Q: What sequence folds into this?
């Protein structure tokens, strides 16, 4: 972990998702950075840790490179940013689009996690595993279920579970209709429940 990431992690612990009260909002920072590019670094300090955590859960070690690329893409697109979504959801959207080039890496990661967890005894509670999808719940059956999902369905499911985005935010950052978000999430949850149920001991 770089010194910059350590500073960002410390900032995130103290001020999760926001800057101190006496600092400008994310929207103000990104607008100011168009004329003063150095101002953009404050957004890294505020949001790098949760974006990195999301990427690391999805693809493992390549997360470091994709984090840097996420912020590079965001920097290049900062002039076209609109405040209707919010900076953090916007960054998660960019990160998710970058993950798409690593679909095979992500699927291999989930299958490897499943093999590592094969010795665990009790399966997770299905609904709890689907809703939380946290590191503790990512066991063999859930990892296999995630690996089996179509990439588009997995994107929506993990943006809901790991990035904590609303349906409206997901629709905006992925540039898809709200109804498509709902249908993909419904399908992902149904297929995940089915995969988990099939793994339960009889």
A:
């Amino acid at each position: 972990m770089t010194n910059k990431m350590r500073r960002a992690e410390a900032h995130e612990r103290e001020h999760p998702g926001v800057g101190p009260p006496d600092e400008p909002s994310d929207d103000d920072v990104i607008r100011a950075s168009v004329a003063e590019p150095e101002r953009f670094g404050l957004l890294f300090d505020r949001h790098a840790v949760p974006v990195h955590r999301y990427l690391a859960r999805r693809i493992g070690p390549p997360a470091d490179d994709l984090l840097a690329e996420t912020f590079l893409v965001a920097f290049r697109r900062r002039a076209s940013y609109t405040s209707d979504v919010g900076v953090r959801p916007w960054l998660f959207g960019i990160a998710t689009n970058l993950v798409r080039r690593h679909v095979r890496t992500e699927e291999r990661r989930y299958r490897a996690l499943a093999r590592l967890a094969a010795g665990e005894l009790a399966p997770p509670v299905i609904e709890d595993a689907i809703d939380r999808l946290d590191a503790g719940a990512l066991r063999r059956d859930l990892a296999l279920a995630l690996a089996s999902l179509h990439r588009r369905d997995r994107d929506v499911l993990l943006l809901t579970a790991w990035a904590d985005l609303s349906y409206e935010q997901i629709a905006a950052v992925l540039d898809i209709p709200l109804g498509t978000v709902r249908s993909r999430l419904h399908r992902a949850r149904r297929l995940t429940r089915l995969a988990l149920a099939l793994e339960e001991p009889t």
